[in-house]
Every structure is written in structure tokens, then in C-alpha cells.
Design brief:
The chain has one domain: Rossmann fold (3-Layer(aba) Sandwich), CATH 3.40.50.970. It starts with about 20 loop residues before the first helix and ends with a helix. It is built from 9 helices and 8 strands. It is globular. The chain has about 270 residues and is of the alpha/beta class. The structure holds thiamine diphosphate (TPP). The site of thiamine diphosphate has 18 residues, from helix 3.
Length: about 270
């Protein structure tokens, strides 16, 4: 049950994430971002959250905002329907990597392609965590989980490259344990007019604890020309999600203005 207290974003729901889960970092960054946007003048009732099914989906229980639990992989079609019905709303879709890069991948491609004016935040822990660790599209080759006890034989995808080539107009990567940095990305993504996508690297402390791997490689992107496709792609490809010694840039890679799906639909 959500607390009937409009002055804060806390709820009464018992938090059932593993103690120390970096999802707490994503929750805190989201709370700070939305609080700042409310202070800037966006009405609290104009935020709507959607989620898929998984550990990530519980985040909507922990935020005292309008929300809609969708089906596994169906957070984005729900979010797009809400935005089409009421363009005043700020719609934020929380998804897991299994949820969106496996079950719901076609919705991701088409939402980016049509530049739907929604924000997508991926809790990428590189496995289907709630169902005790099957491999996903971003699990590294060799990943040992309950469906791949001898190690996955597949190479992972680079989701930023996928969204970029599909037509996304705001493409970013954050780290769940760099809370202030992630907060800034979430604010910019929500303020962006068009399809905004944040891939959040979220170590799964129970099934795939890659905190050390990330913390040795992550660096914040310096200022780049955000409208240059060439620069964006170079930076997006700097780390290819395969294991290796490469640096992992986080920050905003690409941001361009284009008419949104909803604008085009209602002006046609
Ligand atoms: C259509 C469908 N397939 C499978 C499931 C079972 N299921 C529920 S949660 C889950 C794993 C979710 O993994 P992910 O989306 O990566 O989120 P995480 O738990 O890692 O945050 C699965 C496979 C389901 N609920 N619906």
C-alpha cells in the first residue's frame, strides 16, 4: 500500500531486494531526480511509472507515484499507451535486461524507432535475477547461471548500439552506485522531448557481483558533441559488453531533437 502523503516519495511497502542490492542506488537516484523536477514545477501527479516483471519492477512499489505493473517485457507498450492517452504526463518505464533485451526487445526497437516521448531506465544486472539467474542478452560469454551451468556460449549485445541504430534520440549509460551522476542523467532524460534511454549498470550482488570489474573500468565521459552520430558511435563501441580490459564510459552519448511519435500522430 502506498503512503497517502503527497509531500514525499516514500511508501509503506516492505523492501524485499537483497540487502546491499545496487537497485537501492537506482531508487535513491530516481527519488532525488523526481524530487528536483517536482521542485522545478512538474506536478507530482503528472509522473507515471511502468515496470516489467523482475527484481527491477519492485521499484514502483517503493515510490509514492502513480504506477502500473505491466507484464514481463511489456513495460514499454504500456508506457507508450499512457503517453498517447495523455501527453501532459511524464512516463518513466523501468525495465530489467531480461525483460527488455530478451522478452520485450521488439518493443524497445519500435519505441526508439518512432521516437515515443517516454523515458526508459534499464536495471541491467546481466541476468534474469528474480528467477534465480538465467542468462540474458547482456550476460557475458561464459556466464554461469541456472540455465547455463557450463557457461553461456553466446556473445552479449551492446544495447546502446541497438537503441542508437533503432533511432533513439537520447542515449545514456549510468552506474547504479554513482548516485548523483545517475540522478543528473535521469533528470536530463525526463526533460528530453523524445525517446530517452538510460542503460544502468547494476551489479547483482547475489548472482553476478561485477562491482570490482566495473569500478576498475568505469570513467565519466568528457563533454562530447552530443549531436554527432560518429562521436556517439565511437564512444558507444568503446566497450562492447564482452569481457576484457576496456574502459567503460558512463554519461550522455547522444541527444538530438526530432518530432515525437505523439506529436506526429496528433498533427496528422
Ligand atoms: C512472459 C513471462 N515469461 C517469464 C516470466 C517469469 N519471470 C518472472 S521475473 C523473470 C526474470 C526477470 O529478469 P529481468 O527482467 O532481467 O529482471 P531482474 O529480476 O533481473 O531485475 C522471469 C523470467 C514471466 N513472469 N512472464
Amino acid at each position: 500500500m502506498k503512503k497517502n502523503n503527497l509531500s514525499n516519495l516514500e511508501t509503506y511497502c516492505k523492501n524485499t531486494w537483497c540487502p546491499g542490492c545496487p537497485n537501492f542506488g537506482i531508487l535513491e537516484a530516481t527519488k532525488r531526480a523526481i524530487s528536483e523536477l517536482i521542485e522545478k514545477g512538474i506536478a507530482k501527479e503528472n509522473f507515471v511509472l511502468t515496470c516489467g516483471i523482475g527484481c527491477h519492477g519492485k521499484i514502483v512499489d517503493y515510490l509514492n507515484l502513480n504506477s502500473f505493473y505491466s507484464l514481463h517485457g511489456r513495460s514499454l507498450c504500456t508506457a507508450q499507451g499512457i503517453k498517447l492517452a495523455n501527453q501532459n504526463l511524464k512516463v518513466i518505464a523501468f525495465v530489467g535486461d531480461g525483460d527488455i533485451y530478451n522478452e520485450g526487445i521488439s518493443h524497445l526497437i519500435h519505441a526508439a524507432k518512432r521516437n515515443s516521448d517516454i523515458t526508459v531506465l534499464v536495471h541491467d544486472n546481466r541476468n534474469f535475477a528474480l528467477t534465480v539467474s538465467q542468462f540474458t542478452a547482456t550476460s557475458p560469454k561464459g556466464f554461469k547461471g541456472s540455465s547455463t551451468p557450463k557457461g553461456s556460449v553466446e556473445e552479449p549485445i551492446n544495447p546502446l548500439e541497438l537503441v542508437f541504430t533503432s533511432g533513439g534520440t537520447f542515449i545514456a549509460r549510468g552506474y547504479a552506485l554513482k548516485i548523483e551522476h545517475l540522478k543528473e542523467l535521469i533528470i536530463k532524460a525526463i526533460e528530453h522531448k523524445g525517446f530517452s534511454f538510460i542503460e544502468v549498470l547494476q551489479p547483482c550482488i547475489t548472482f553476478f557481483d561485477n562491482r570490482k570489474f566495473y569500478e576498475e573500468r568505469i570513467y565519466e565521459l568528457p563533454e562530447i558533441n552530443l549531436t554527432s552520430q560518429k562521436e556517439a558511435l565511437e564512444k558507444i563501441r568503446e566497450w562492447d559488453y564482452k569481457n576484457g580490459d576496456k574502459n567503460i564510459p558512463i554519461g550522455l552519448f547522444y541527444k538530438v531533437e526530432k518530432p515525437t511519435f505523439e506529436e506526429l500522430i496528433f498533427s496528422s
